[in-house]
Amino acid sequence: QNNQSTTKTSIDTLKKSKYLSQPLISNIFTADPSAHVFDGKIYIYPSHDIEAGKPENDNGDHFDMRDYHILSMDSIGAKVTDNGVALSIKDIPWAGRQLWAPDVAFKGGTYYLYFPVKDKSDIFRIGVATSKNPAGPFKAEPLPIPGSFSIDPAVFTDSDGSSYMYFGGIWGGQLQRWKNGKYDANGSKTDSQQEDQPALTAKVAKITNNMLSFEGGLKDVIILDKQGKQLLTKDHDRRFFEGAWMHKFNGKYYFTYSTGDTHYLASAIGDTPYGPFTYQGTFMDPVEGWTTHHSIVEIKGKWYIFYHDTQLSGKTHLRNVKVTELTHNADGTIKLIEPILK
Ligand code: FUB
């Protein structure tokens, strides 16, 4: 008996030592962590993964999440608190299914939680819910943001107080079905399928003063190569797939994202929140699990990346969030992070 438990402990230790960092919590499965600092405390807004028994497919039906839990901690390495249900799908009047990756913004004493969910016609839209407390509970607005679609909202507030939303995702995220500004239910299941044309990319919109709508229309987040040419559909190692994030460092705007089917996190930098952005390279190698999704945040003078993998479950739809340090290089790139130790 003793020998068996010693062997099990050694195997567990060996397994753990494979990874650059360890899961932040293990009482629930969490993914897509958007991290922010409010009043000196760290808050993480993740998806809450569950086993819904849905078959795995390219549409992402197996990601059938029903609520959000917000995590908080006083500092990196400190105890992580799961603050319980912050918003449930049953309290979103227009929602159908699949609560995917959220983000949050703060303005004038109110926290705004932005979330993608399929409406009752199975079309992804982006909604807003509000709270006076960063950990919730949040109350959803009665309707989605007018003109919103697709997934993965990331809200960036610039030094002048203006906020912008970056959003979109191809394949299950449905971005490719909005070619002419209207949803095409019979459209492509993956991308534009025009291999030698500029790839579909994220959208960016300025958010109105009341934080509830878009103003000035949607713009494409243009990603250029070093020769000034837009990345093409066939360039799966570099083109945008989903999971946008924006942060500002040394006066430059860093647009970071997942390349999806090639599983990298990549960065591109620009001089304004609207871009254009010049591709800088990959800054995180693939994690375990199909999806990769992150946020980047400065905490007490150091930069961190929050991300997920499938260390606890070994299943692509049951993920766990993690954090590790991130370093900006002087040449505009971000130092490569290898989540699985060699
Ligand atoms: O969590 C569901 C989806 O998986 C997210 O919206 C994507 O970014 C991917 O992480």
Explained architecture:
One of its GO terms (molecular function) is hydrolase activity, hydrolyzing O-glycosyl compounds. It holds the Pfam family Glyco_hydro_43. Keywords: Carbohydrate metabolism, Glycosidase, Hydrolase, Polysaccharide degradation, Signal, Xylan degradation. This protein has about 350 residues and is mainly beta. About 5% of the residues lie in helices and about 40% in strands. The chain has one helix spanning about 1-15, and strands at about 30-40, 40-50, 65-75, 80-90, 95, 105, 110-120, 125-130, 140, 155, 165, 205, 215-220, 225, 240-250, 250-260, 265-270, 275-285, 295-300, 300-310, 320-325. Strands 5, 6, 7, 8 and 9 form a five-stranded antiparallel beta sheet that branches. A hairpin with a 6-residue loop joins strand 17 and strand 18 (about 275-285). It is globular and about 60 Å long. The two termini are about 35 Å apart. Bound molecules: beta-L-arabinofuranose. Beta-L-arabinofuranose (FUB) binds near residues 32, 63, 100 and 291.
Average pLDDT for all residues: 96
The number of helical segments is: 1
As a percent range, the share of helical residues equals under 10%
How far the N terminus sits from the C terminus, by CA atoms, comes to 33 Å
> Which distinct ligands sit in these coordinates?
beta-L-arabinofuranose
Please provide the ordered H/E string of secondary-structure elements: HEEEEEEEEEEEEEEEEEEEEE
Radius of gyration: 19 Å
Dominant shape: globular
Strand tally is: 21
The amount of beta strand, in percent, is 35-45%
Secondary-structure content class: mainly beta
Q: What are the segments in which pLDDT stays under 50 over at least 5 consecutive residues?
A: none
**Tell me about the biggest sheet?**
5 strands, antiparallel
| Subunit arrangement of the protein | single chain
Organism: Pedobacter duraquae
Protein name: Glycosyl hydrolase family 43
Keywords: Carbohydrate metabolism, Glycosidase, Hydrolase, Polysaccharide degradation, Signal, Xylan degradation
Family: Belongs to the glycosyl hydrolase 43 family.
